[in-house]
Design a protein that fits this description.
The structure is a single chain. The protein has 388 residues and is mainly α. The chain has three domains: 47 residues; 104 residues, no CATH class; 221 residues, MetI-like fold (Orthogonal Bundle), CATH 1.10.3720. Helices cover 66% and strands 6% of the residues. A three-stranded antiparallel sheet has the order 2-1-3. The longest helix is centred in the N-terminal third of the chain and has 46 residues. It is elongated.
Length: 388
């Protein structure tokens, strides 16, 4: 009875501790989910409006004089605040595409300025009361409308907010990730196969494995410093190019790919190898035909996640100059380019309020791509796991 007397309070105390632990764990999970929902909702609320752009219908007079002095094409006293300077600047280009516009004076739909666009979207703007009355009058005459913002997905960066786009950074990211994938994945997988299946267990390989685990955890900006010192200063790779950016991100991704690939190879049952030896197969035949196919889902998942992580990095690319102002869409691995995280970082530091929605929209695009890559990794892992 004495033992029972002491046992029952101890058991009750353990149950209370277990309940508290479960409550804390559930609270932490709930807090994480709520924070994620709040973050995504905030980005969507701020960024969805960037996918539409305001256009206004104003009288435009195009002749020889206005082609040379594009700002003379509109009534400057009345509409100079409302029409985008970028649209006026592009009049010669538009005239090449539409020669019939020459010597015409008629109302046309033109790109609105950032302040007018922000007013139509009910955001902060710098319009005066007189200018607001003019825009409201134009709205009543159906001379103001919002359209899908094709410029956002067709242009590069610009100092004019309403003319700035995200496509140059998307193309730069694609080119950079191609270089990263072609370098990091084959080298990382082959290194993992050698270390796990063929390398002798001695001090040298142990040092390599310890260093690989440590490299997977160091700050990413150190890889940027390494890329700056080795690829740019030593080998002369063009600065700000997808080539040097991809090589730098490949250095950063290698440890993660190697560690994840080694873990996938370790997960293959040793009985597979023993059965291969019993049938008279060589070590290479067993590894090539049995071990690697069984470990492929894990290695593929680790590689995709490592590339997705590299796609979201900014610090190492800042060190190699990929935060430059890039108004044109690049098409070469050696041309100056920027990437999506760097473009978002640049827009976040711009003083104009119109860049706030573009920053949030860029984050939404980047998140969509990253989530898609992770979904592909999960799908491929499940597919190939079932097939084997």
């Amino acid at each position: 009875m004495k033992n029972d007397y002491f046992y029952i309070p101890q058991l009750a105390r353990r149950k209370r501790q277990e309940k508290r632990f479960k409550l804390i764990a559930k609270s932490a999970l709930l807090f994480s989910v709520l924070f994620l929902i709040f973050f995504l909702a905030d980005m969507f609320i701020k960024g969805y409006s960037a996918f539409s752009q305001t256009y206004i219908k104003v009288p435009v007079n195009i002749n020889t004089k206005t082609v040379e002095m594009s700002h003379m094409a509109i009534d400057r006293k009345k509409y100079s605040f409302a029409v985008s300077r970028a649209w006026l600047r592009d009049i010669p280009k538009m005239l090449e595409q539409n020669p019939s516009w020459m010597n015409t004076d008629e109302e046309r739909w033109v790109l609105a300025s950032a302040n007018v666009d922000q007013y139509i979207k009910s955001n902060h703007n710098k319009l005066t009361q007189e200018q607001i009355q003019l825009i409201d009058h134009m709205k009543s005459e159906q001379k103001v409308e919002k359209r899908f913002n094709k410029l956002f997905f067709a242009k590069g960066d610009s100092k004019i907010p309403e003319y700035s786009g995200f496509m140059a950074s998307i193309i730069g990211t694609v080119l950079t990730m191609i270089v990263t994938m072609l370098l990091a994945v084959p080298i990382g997988v082959m290194t993992a196969v050698y270390l796990e299946e063929f390398a002798p267990d001695n001090k040298f390989t142990q040092i390599i494995e310890v260093n690989m685990n440590n490299l997977a955890a160091i700050p990413s900006i150190l890889f940027g410093l390494l890329g700056l010192a080795v690829f740019i200063n030593l080998f002369g790779v063009p600065r700000s190019s997808p080539l040097v950016g991809g090589m730098t991100l490949a250095l950063m991704s290698l440890p993660v790919i190697i560690v994840s690939s080694k873990a996938a190879l370790k997960a293959v049952p040793s009985s597979i190898r023993q059965a291969g030896f019993a049938l008279g197969l060589t070590k290479w035949q067993i590894t090539r035909d049995h071990v690697i196919p069984l470990a492929a889902p894990g290695m593929l998942t680790g590689s995709i996640i490592a590339l997705a992580q590299a796609m979201g990095e900014t610090a190492p690319l800042i060190m190699v100059g990929m935060i430059a102002f890039i108004p044109d869409i690049g098409s070469s691995f050696t041309e100056a380019a920027t990437v999506m995280p760097a473009q978002i970082f640049t827009w976040a530091g711009m003083p104009e309020r119109a860049y706030i929605e573009r920053t949030a929209a860029g984050i939404l695009v980047l998140l969509g791509i990253l989530l898609s890559l992770n979904a592909v990794a999960i799908y491929l892992r499940n597919k190939y796991s079932k097939s084997w």
